[in-house]
Every structure is written in structure tokens, then in C-alpha cells.
């Protein structure tokens, strides 16, 4: 059996030790917290990449993504071509009162139109105001942090390697075309560089001015 009051004494000892230490309390909102790079705050929309494929809305387990669109006819790019139709985004909204921040919509998006933003200050007094439209989602897009740098020892991504090979091939083709054009220009200038008879100085045997021949004999 312990000494009566020992638990109280231990608690007071812990209190006395912590009273002399510096506090680590962050005075929010005056001091903003340092969030990890992959913080799941809100979802930002990069509207230019959205093709209205509806994949994010279909895969959402909470059905909190609302998308409306319409089709437009695009004229042919060249004469005689066929007209094409494309989807135009009219509405893209997320109800954050229903969202459980699972990130499935971001993972399944094939065109990188959705991103995690560390923004977390979006509380509302009315729960109905937690449905944010695409304008607000686009504002949050500019708070998305840059992706982390790749490991220098990692293999080069296939996309970057393919793009570099295509660029090198194009540069080589342009250099070959320039060299061929230069050779063609030099070949066309060759016959024009030969000396032709001059009818005014008489160096080729005939002087049209004084009528003398190449030996100085006058006719």
C-alpha cells in the first residue's frame, strides 16, 4: 500500500517541472501552423485539364461531387474535315459537408485536374455554404504546393525520356535541313563566281573603246 497522498505529490511535481519550461503553444491565428506537404485540406480544381469525363463523380463513395456540362460542335481544323463535338464544363461543385477526404477523386482523375490543397480555413456558419463551386475550387488551386523533387538516384520517368528523345530527333532533323539548305546555296552560287569577258577593259583581246587587240596593235 502506497503512502497516502503520493499520487498528488507526483502530479504536483510534474506541474512544477512544466511550469519552468518554455511553452510550445502556437497562438493561432496569429501564428500559422507549419503543415506537412501532403496535408489533405481541400480539393483544388485545375479547370483547363478537366474533360468532363465524370470519372471522379462516379467513383466518389459519398456522391458529393456535382458536375454539369453541355456539348459544343467544333469546326474542322482543315477544309474538308469533319466537325467534332467536345464537352464544356458548366458546373463543378464539391459538398465538403459530405466529403470524407478519401482522395479517390484525385487518384482516379486521368487528366490531373484535381489536387490536394493544404488550405483548411473554410468553415461556414451554415452547412449549406460548404458546397463550393468551381470558382472557389479554382482559387484553392493556387495554394497547392509544388510537387517534391525527384530522387536524383531514381530512374528517369518514361514521359520525360520520350519527350527528350522527340526533342533531340526534331533538333537533329532541323540541323540536317539547315545543312542541306546551305549546301544547296553554295552549289547554286558556284557558276556565278567564274570570270566572264569584260567588254570595257579589253583584257580578253578586244577593246570596244579604242579598237586595239590584246598585243597593243590598233586596227
Describe this structure in words.
There is one protein chain. This protein is α+β, with helices and mostly antiparallel strands. It is built from five helices and five strands; from the N terminus they run αβαββαββαα. The radius of gyration is 39 Å and the shape is elongated. The C terminus is likely disordered.
Give a short overview.
This protein has five helices and five strands; from the N terminus they run H-E-H-E-E-H-E-E-H-H.
The topology string of helices and strands comes to HEHEEHEEHH
Q: For the record, give the distance between the C-alpha atoms at the N and C termini, rounded to a whole number.
A: 151 Å
Please describe the biggest sheet, giving its number of strands, its sense, and whether it closes into a barrel: 3 strands, antiparallel
Uncertain runs are 199-212, 214-219
The helicity comes to 25-40%
Structural class of the secondary elements? alpha+beta
Total DSSP E strands: 5
Topology diagram in text:
Elements: H1 6-19, E1 42-45, H2 55-59, E2 65-74, E3 84-95, H3 104-108, E4 114-117, E5 131-132, H4 134-141, H5 158-189
Keywords, please?
alpha+beta, 219 residues, 15% strand, disordered C terminus, 5 helices
Amino acid at each position: 500500500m502506497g503512502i497516502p497522498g503520493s499520487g498528488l505529490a507526483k502530479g504536483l511535481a510534474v506541474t512544477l517541472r512544466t511550469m519552468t519550461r518554455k511553452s510550445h503553444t502556437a497562438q493561432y491565428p496569429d501564428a500559422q501552423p507549419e503543415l506537412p506537404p501532403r496535408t489533405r485540406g481541400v480539393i483544388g480544381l485545375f479547370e483547363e485539364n478537366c474533360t468532363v469525363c465524370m470519372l471522379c463523380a462516379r467513383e466518389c463513395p459519398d456522391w458529393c461531387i456535382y458536375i454539369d456540362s453541355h456539348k459544343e460542335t467544333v469546326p474542322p481544323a482543315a477544309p474538308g474535315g469533319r466537325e467534332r463535338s467536345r464537352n464544356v464544363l458548366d458546373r463543378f461543385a464539391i459538398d465538403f459537408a459530405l466529403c470524407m477526404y478519401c482522395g479517390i477523386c484525385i487518384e482516379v482523375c486521368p487528366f490531373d485536374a484535381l489536387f490536394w490543397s493544404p488550405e483548411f480555413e473554410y468553415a461556414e456558419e451554415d452547412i449549406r455554404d460548404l458546397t463550393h463551386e468551381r470558382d472557389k475550387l479554382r482559387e484553392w488551386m493556387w495554394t497547392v504546393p509544388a510537387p517534391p523533387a525527384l530522387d536524383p538516384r531514381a530512374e528517369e520517368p518514361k514521359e520525360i525520356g520520350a519527350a527528350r528523345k522527340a526533342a533531340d530527333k526534331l533538333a537533329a532533323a532541323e540541323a540536317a535541313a539547315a545543312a542541306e539548305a546551305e549546301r544547296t546555296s553554295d552549289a547554286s552560287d558556284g557558276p556565278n563566281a567564274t570570270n566572264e569577258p569584260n567588254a570595257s577593259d579589253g583584257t580578253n583581246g578586244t577593246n570596244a573603246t579604242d579598237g586595239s587587240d590584246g598585243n597593243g596593235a590598233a586596227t
